[in-house]
Task: inverse folding
């Protein structure tokens, strides 16, 4: 007796034995003989022809209430609709069902492994397991370089797998080895329609990718697009995987959008967009070569904060991820509350030079690793902000920023944004922000990038009732280490704390004060150490000419430079500056080169006070200024 007939004989005699020998689960129905009758035909077929096991549709049509069928063969429904009774179970045992519809009765179950792009599943049915494992072959995904039509089918089939598995109760969509292109680009101008071309993730869903998952945007000539989108959803996770843009294959020819507006810069495609969503976590993803941004936390589609009914991002976090070679920004944050970027690596953002008119794969502005830039307007009479988009309560912590075209981070108009314990080789800055904090960051300037400033606070002045009002305020710059920038810290704005920072190896200024058209007021500088400049002519503290500065206090400050510890000139010269004050107290100022070098105050309005300071190798030089001294000590 050959082995196949032996197994058939054994099964007929003892279902328990065949279950033990094969590992197959037998179907339980009204009787043992009914179980054998239901499962025996496909098993016989399998045993007689292991490579071509064809199932009989009658196996499905004859199922009764509560039956379970182990699908070990391939069932071709021939475009038929198969109506199944309640409480049936279809289990994947290496077979398939395709080319038709299964319409389930109440309380039925299907194994996720049986789902495919050629099968429609309807009725009252759910998955046997909430973890759905995506099989690229069953879903007809074509890998490698493909044409546009094939990449469109790839996207449609991927979306169908997500939608079908979710509708059947999947909470985890798991994907392993794949390397495929997807058509997810759009023309722009019709956001309600265009954004649907992205791979859309639903609520209460974990998109689980592996280290050998590679999803790619199909090369295009279109100026917008997104590979993966979470739009107006909640409780979503994206983990793992490698996501690729088409920056170096993109066609940058001039183009108009749907409303005939020129969009020649092609700067808007992104690899992941989260908009109007709550409780989203992105963990351990890798993005490369985006034509625009790697990741965007943005507004809901067609929504502005001026409409209170529109959702906005809340409790959205990206962590442990790597964002590489984005053409525009590594990440843009334009809308949301309680957002976090934790322990990520941003590298080679916005690199490549281009001319003013030639658009290419070279970097396009702003070219920051992280750009916080909500769309904000202002009331013409009061200067009060109008938040079309709003960003507030953001934590950027533990990240590494290297090789960014224009800088590491920029905060335009954010509220309560904190940059903490990051490592950077370029500027970290805020422009027109409120409550921005730089705490515990280490900035070691990339000398090839000629970094102008390590940390910079910003300004927005509005003329209201004939007076200049500064809206950027409440900054904190604490416990940072800055090495190798031309200027260590540049301060403007309406109030804050600059304390316990170490500024070394600067070529121009340790701390730079104000700008020609900005105000600088209500700052306390405490415990800062400024030393070891790159040139003898570098100043420890120096202002920009024409600045209005008042209520500034420098205390417990240590400055040790070759020649010029402090150089203040041409400040507070306006008619409204007569009562302005700047105070230096309880500090140490040293010139280390031989000779007596000046700590100079020249052509300044208001009052400058020096109280209880130590001067080593430097003398206080006053010219056309009101300087008050008390209790200072000088040692040549």
Result:
């Amino acid at each position: 007796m050959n082995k196949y007939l032996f197994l058939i004989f054994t099964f007929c005699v003892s279902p328990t034995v065949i279950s033990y020998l094969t590992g197959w689960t037998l179907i339980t129905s009204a009787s043992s003989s009914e179980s054998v009758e239901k499962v025996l035909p496909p098993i016989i077929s399998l045993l007689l022809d292991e490579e071509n096991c064809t199932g009989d549709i009658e196996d499905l049509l004859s199922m009764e209430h509560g039956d379970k069928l182990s699908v070990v063969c391939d069932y071709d429904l021939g475009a038929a609709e198969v109506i199944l009774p309640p409480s049936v179970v279809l289990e994947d045992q290496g077979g398939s069902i395709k080319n038709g519809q299964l319409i389930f009765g109440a309380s039925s179950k299907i194994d996720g492994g049986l789902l495919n792009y050629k099968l429609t599943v309807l009725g009252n049915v759910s998955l046997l397991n909430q973890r759905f494992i995506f099989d690229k072959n069953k879903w007809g995904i074509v890998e490698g370089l493909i044409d546009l039509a094939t990449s469109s089918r790839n996207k449609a089939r991927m979306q169908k797998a997500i939608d079908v598995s979710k509708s059947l109760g999947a909470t985890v969509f798991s994907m392993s080895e794949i390397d495929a292109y997807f058509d997810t680009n759009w023309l722009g101008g019709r956001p309600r329609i265009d954004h649907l071309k992205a791979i859309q993730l639903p609520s209460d869903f974990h998109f689980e990718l592996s280290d050998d998952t590679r999803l790619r945007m199909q090369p295009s000539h279109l100026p917008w697009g997104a590979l993966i989108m979470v739009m107006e959803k909640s409780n979503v996770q994206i983990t793992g995987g490698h996501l690729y843009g088409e920056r170096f294959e993109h066609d940058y020819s001039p183009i108009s959008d749907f409303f005939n507006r020129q969009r020649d810069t092609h700067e808007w495609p992104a690899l992941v967009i989260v908009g109007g969503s709550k409780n989203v976590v992105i963990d351990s993803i890798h993005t490369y070569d985006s034509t625009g941004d790697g990741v965007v936390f943005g507004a809901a589609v067609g929504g502005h904060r001026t409409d209170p009914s529109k959702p906005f991002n809340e409790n959205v976090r990206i962590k442990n991820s790597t964002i590489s070679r984005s053409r525009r920004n590594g990440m843009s944050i334009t809308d949301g509350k309680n957002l976090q970027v934790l322990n990520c690596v941003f590298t080679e953002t916005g690199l490549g030079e281009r001319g003013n008119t030639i658009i290419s794969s070279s970097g396009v502005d702003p070219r920051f690793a992280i750009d916080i830039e909500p769309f904000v307007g202002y009331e013409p009479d009061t200067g009060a902000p109008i938040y079309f988009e709003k960003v507030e309560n953001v934590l950027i912590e533990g990240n590494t920023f290297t090789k960014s075209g224009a800088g590491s981070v920029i905060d335009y108009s954010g509220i309560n944004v904190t940059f903490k314990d990051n490592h950077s080789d370029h500027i970290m800055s805020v422009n027109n922000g409120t409550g921005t904090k730089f705490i515990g960051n280490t900035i070691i300037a990339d000398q090839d990038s000629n970094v102008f400033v390590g940390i910079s606070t910003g300004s927005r002045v509005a003329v209201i009732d004939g007076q200049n009002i500064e809206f950027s305020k409440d900054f904190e710059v604490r416990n940072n280490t800055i090495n190798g920038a031309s200027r260590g810290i540049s301060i403007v704005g309406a109030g804050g704390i600059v304390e316990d920072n170490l500024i070394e190896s600067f070529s121009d200024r340790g701390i730079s004060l104000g700008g020609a058209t900005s105000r600088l007021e209500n700052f306390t500088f405490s415990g800062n150490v400024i030393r070891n400049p790159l040139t003898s002519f570098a100043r420890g503290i120096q202002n920009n000419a024409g600045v209005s500065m008042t209520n500034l206090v420098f205390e417990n400050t240590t400055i040790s430079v070759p020649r010029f510890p402090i150089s203040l000139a041409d400040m507070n010269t306006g008619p409204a500056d007569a009562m302005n004050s700047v105070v230096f107290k309880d500090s140490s100022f040293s010139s280390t080169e031989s000779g007596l070098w000046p700590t100079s105050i020249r052509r300044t309005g208001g009052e400058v006070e020096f109280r209880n300071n130590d001067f080593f190798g430097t003398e206080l030089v006053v010219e056309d200024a009101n300087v008050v001294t008390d209790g200072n000590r000088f040692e040549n």
About this structure: Residues 1-42, 44-50 have pLDDT under 50 and may be disordered.
